[in-house]
């Protein structure tokens, strides 16, 4: 599926539609977010977090590599899921998949309560399972992005 979004409201709607279609499995749900700088990867993650009821400001984990957000069952949310945690990873500064092992990659991947959004998946492609959902983002202009699922 391809979609061009021209506003944050459209991106938020798209994030909600995406969440509604996700199916939880026996492991964590991994979603890769590919695209150049400024193409909308973190903005999409922010909209996913908003739909899941995260009140904390979601920022890019470029320097810390990984940020975890607990999903409270008591917090009101627009999209109800059985995920317990949103994990946002930015692999831009990593050399390969072995670097993810230092972030307890195996442990977070084996927990079906985790929804993982991974930016720059091409940097760690050797560890990304084929079952990962893939989204690519392309900068069109200051207000438009092309998103391919």
SSE topology sketch:
Layout: E1 2-5, H1 8-21, E2 29-34, H2 41-51, E3 66-70, E4 85-90, H3 98-101, H4 105-109, E5 114-119, E6 133-141, E7 144-148
Parallel strand pairs: 2-5, 2-6, 4-5
Antiparallel strand pairs: 1-7, 3-4, 6-7
What does this structure look like?
The chain has one domain: Rossmann fold. 23% of the residues lie in helices and 28% in strands. It is built from four helices and seven strands. The radius of gyration is 14 Å and the shape is globular. The model has no long low-confidence stretch (mean pLDDT 93).
Structural class: alpha/beta
Number of helices: 4
Radius of gyration: 14 Å
State the low-pLDDT regions, or none: none
How many individual β-strands? Answer: 7
The average pLDDT is 93
Principal-axes geometry comes out as globular
CATH superfamily assignment? Answer: P-loop containing nucleotide triphosphate hydrolases
Total of domains = 1
Biggest sheet strand order reads 1-7-6-2-5-4-3
* Residues in helix, %: 10-25%
């Amino acid at each position: 599926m391809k979609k061009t979004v021209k506003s944050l409201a459209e991106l938020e709607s798209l994030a909600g539609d995406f969440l509604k279609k996700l199916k939880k499995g026996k492991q964590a749900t991994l979603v890769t977010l590919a695209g150049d700088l400024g193409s909308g990867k973190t903005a999409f993650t922010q909209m996913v977090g908003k739909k899941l009821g995260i009140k904390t400001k979601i920022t890019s984990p470029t320097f810390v590599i990984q940020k975890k957000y607990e999903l409270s069952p008591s917090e009101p949310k627009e999209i109800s899921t059985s995920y317990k945690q949103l994990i946002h990873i930015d692999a831009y500064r990593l050399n390969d998949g072995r670097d993810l092992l230092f972030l307890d990659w195996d442990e977070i991947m084996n927990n079906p309560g985790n929804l993982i959004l991974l930016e720059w998946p091409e940097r760690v492609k050797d560890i990304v399972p084929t079952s990962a959902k893939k989204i690519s983002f392309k900068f069109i202009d200051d207000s438009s992005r092309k998103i391919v699922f």
